[in-house]
Amino acid sequence: MTRFTDGPPLTLSDLQQSITAAVAALPALNLSGYVFLFPELQANPKNRVPENAQTVNRLIDLGLTMVDPDPTSAEGNSTIPSAYTYFGQFIDHDLTRQMKIAGDDLTPGRRPLPASTIPQLTNARTPLFDLDCVYGPPTEPHTVPYAIPQQGDKLVIEAAQDGPPFTDLPRDPTPKTHHDAYIGDRRNDENLIISQMHVAFLRAHNALVAEGATFAEAQTTLRRIYQFIAVNDYLPRIADPVIVRDALDGHLNVFDPPDGNVHMPLEFSVAAFRTAHSMIRNVYNYNEHVPKAGLFQLFNPGPLKEFQHIIAAWIIDWPRYFDERNTARLFRPTLAPDLKFVDTHTPFDLATVDLLKGYLYRLPTGEAVAERLGVTPVDISEVTTTEQQQALSAGEFEGRTPLWFYLLCEAAANKEGRLGPVGSIIVASVIVSLVRRSKDSYMNIPNWTPFEQGPEFGLADLFRFAGVLPKA
Predict the structure, then answer these.
(1) How far apart are CA 145 and CA 130, in angstroms?
(2) Which end of the chain is more exposed for a tag (fewer CB within 10 A), N or C?
(3) Is the pLDDT of residue 22 over 50?
(4) What is the 3-state secondary structure (H, E, C) of 8-39?
(5) What is d(CA 232, CA 229) in angstroms, rounded to the nearest whole number?
(6) pLDDT tens digit sequence for 367-414
(7) pTM of the predicted model, to two decimals?
(8) Coil, helix or strand for 403?
(9) 131, 219 contact by CB (below 8 A)
(10) pLDDT above 70: residue 27
(11) What was the pLDDT predicted at 296?
């Protein structure tokens, strides 16, 4: 659902270097910032975790307790196909890319950013469902600035090493270097599954062109299909369907920004949409060549340094990600063990980074948000381990639980394999609102469905159209 890592630190200078003549000037990017969904909670320090010299160390201690002790247990599996774990990551990379500012390093002993600093946070992606991670502009600095490669109205897709055509991303051909992908956001190449998902979207664009669409028509149609899937297929799987319907019917007023002035909510991007880190499996049935691929292997494919493209044996077998061979892990306050070894570009593991970012950016506690929304706070002691309870007590986090950790506990207590009420309200209200305000939004066309196939159209249908899943 969300990013695994934030990628390397990105500054405004980096972003300027990545803009090419084909993309025009930097102001055309309409860079936006970040806001609080619940700014009124900032007034009372009790609505945030304790702020003292030991808080960072206590959050680090809590992060160390968040390792799944039995990552292969059937009891830890959800019914959500693993394809949706990575579709969520794809969405995240399309919506948010926080740029670095002075003083936001994650270091021991630090305090939260001053409230006056939060408005300085800048988003390098448009906070809308417009597929700028596919269509650009690129955000990562590169030795040779580039635009997204095209051939006529089609997007360039290359072949895996010794593999069939249209199976890998277009890459930097420079010998003896890491062959970086020429895509809108290179975080979509940080692991093999999200990389192959990006290939699927490129193929979907080209399939639309093959049916007679121009580049602009294919882009508009693919945006609408993507938005439709996010709202009607993805959201009801990870959030309470009743709450999703309330958001669609306009009964939730949690996030209602003015058109043309949309900023990314921090409670969403730093906490609620990071809950899917717990959905990540430690081992995947990747394909027939690699039936037991460790998560760490997928982050370090190796051939991208030795070869210009991924090797054929690493082409994904997508049917395995839509059936019982790879299901997402349940939402709960433990993460796959291999995530401790993923490079977060900080001194800390992923769980600790998620906790520290919430502290750094002054997020309200889970209990404060629950009470603000009129939801009875969950008793997290029912779903936490003794070790976690000790860490929470030592940090004085009891009743003042870090929002990300709280939402994972709320989901675990929910016992339905989805986010709980607070997590569902935040995620559903923000996603629906962003889709409604997005360029080419399908919501502006009454009763629109992809290819007029009806409301049941989902991610698997798009992948069949793209040719990466067999026809039903």
Answers:
(1) 22
(2) C
(3) no
(4) CCCCHHHHHHHCCCCCCCHHHHCCEEEECCCH
(5) 5
(6) 999 999 999 999 999 999 999 999 999 999 999 999 999 999 999 998
(7) 0.94
(8) helix
(9) yes
(10) no
(11) 87
